[in-house]
Amino acid sequence: MEIRAPPTSLRLATPPATASFRPAALRTSFLNGSVSLRAVQVRQSNVNRFKCNAIRSNLFDRLTRVVRSYANAILSSFEDPEKILDQAVLEMNDDLIKMRQATAQVLASQKRLENKYKAAEQADADWYRRAQLALQKGEEELAREALKRRKSYAVSIM
Questions:
Q1: Distance CA 144, CA 41 (A)
Q2: Which of 101, 102, 110, 131 ranks highest by number of CB atoms within 10 Å?
Q3: Which family would the database say this protein is a member of (predicted)?
Q4: Phi-psi category of residue 32: left, alpha or beta, with phi > 0 → left and psi -120 to 50 → alpha
Q5: Which residues pair with 24 in a beta bridge?
Q6: Mind listing the pLDDT tens digit for each residue in 100-156?
Q7: DSSP-derived secondary structure for 20-71
């Protein structure tokens, strides 16, 4: 149960919003001490400390903003849109040359692989023909050896 005092002409100053509050219970002899009043204590040192930190932070933020604005203004004064566009075109031309070189390398690699595949197919067909000739002549052992070699080329084709 809280007891409120009647309105008087005296007014208390409200503590700052950054102050830390600590409620403390006060006991009275009113109604055998069963009624407790709550009082609010403000630590003044904390209030001052918070104010100093807020002021320092605010000044630092403002100073940082000013320095950034001057740096941006200096950079903007050195920029020439025509030169920036020319540089962008040069970089794109360099990228185009690199892409053409990469495309040429890929096409050359593809051509090498196609030639390798055709050579392996040719060797496979050649060893198969040799195996058939060996069987026609009755040389079964020679035909088996030719088929083994053919198999090695067939694996490289796949």
A1: 104
A2: 131
A3: Belongs to the PspA/Vipp/IM30 family.
A4: left
A5: 39
A6: 999 999 999 999 999 999 999 999 999 999 999 999 999 999 999 999 888 887 777
A7: -EEEEEEE-STTTTT-EEEEEEE-HHHHHHHHHHHHHHHHHHHHHHHHHHHH
> In terms of residues, how long is the chain?
158
**What does the block give as tokens for 46?**
């904390």
CA atoms within 13 A on the CB side of 105: 6
CA gap 101, 85 in Å, rounded: 25
The model carries a pTM of 0.44
* Angle formed by the axes of helices 140-157 and 81-137, nearest 10°: 170
SS3 92: helix
